[in-house]
Amino acid sequence: NLQRTGAFKIRGALSRMNGLSEAEKARGVVSYSSGNHALGLARSARITGSTAVVVMPSEAPGAKIEAVRGLGAEVVLYERDSEDSAEVVAKVIAQTGRVEVPPSAHPEVLAGAGTVALELLEDTKARLDSVIAPCGGGGLTAATAALMAEDSPQTQVFAAEPALFDDTKRSLASGERVANPKGQRTICDAIMTPIPGELTFSINRRLLAGGVTASDAEVRAAMRFAFEHFRIVTEPGAVVGLAAILNGQVPMEGRSVATVITGGNIDTARFAALLEGESDA
């Protein structure tokens, strides 16, 4: 959450942008995102001399939409319950010839996300029993699990999700991708995804130890905990792993457990309201 653009997502976006040819950068890029990948892609496009179009849900936090525009990207809004973001992206590509830089479904994006896990191992300097990673499309969990399988095979990796958007947990149990029901909402806007990604789930199905969840009330409590104990401002989806630890779903006694605080893109009014117990979901 202390990265440029306020979330880890710039790592994957910039990794993919650096892999594009000069001709591809000249065509520009496009993706879909509820905010953090959008910010990372907009900044990465600016850094690499390209341009970006981002497809965002109309209900995304206004502060994120304006921040994406402020970084020079064009924002195309869509309706989450009646439109498919992938179809909107495909339409933009057909009309403009832009190159897609997905939030997680590309090896170079996953490689960028994996640097989070690499730095976690470097900083821990001791046995790490479990990592609890917030999970939307599954990119961070997949990258973390792949890195741990190679460099720290004793470390279990768990996906942490909002209770009403536990598609990865349910998909792991069923052995196939299972979608979330339409119409549900959570305060965790950054990880409010419809279904696990094909590429990421193919990795998560093999390597994850399981899934844990947290309610919106537990997420708000985790935001408060992070602020009071660590003096950091977090957005809701960023602390769902911490919330799962605090609600007792993660064994702690005698174990070394880590979680990733993935973003802090939230405006002052919403942060204060959520700490007071209000819900905007």
Please give a structural write-up.
It is a single chain. The protein is an alpha/beta fold and 281 residues long. The protein is built from twelve helices and eight strands. Helix 4 (62-70) links the parallel strand 2 (52-57) and strand 3. Helix 1 packs parallel to helix 3. It starts with 9 loop residues before the first helix and ends in a 6-residue tail after the last helix.
Write the layout of secondary structure elements.
Elements: H1 10-18, H2 22-27, E1 29-32, H3 36-47, E2 52-57, H4 62-70, E3 74-78, H5 85-96, E4 99-100, H6 107-124, E5 130-134, H7 139-151, E6 156-162, H8 167-174, H9 198-207, E7 210-214, H10 216-230, H11 240-246, E8 257-259, H12 268-275
Parallel strand pairs: 1-2, 1-4, 2-3, 5-6, 5-8, 6-7
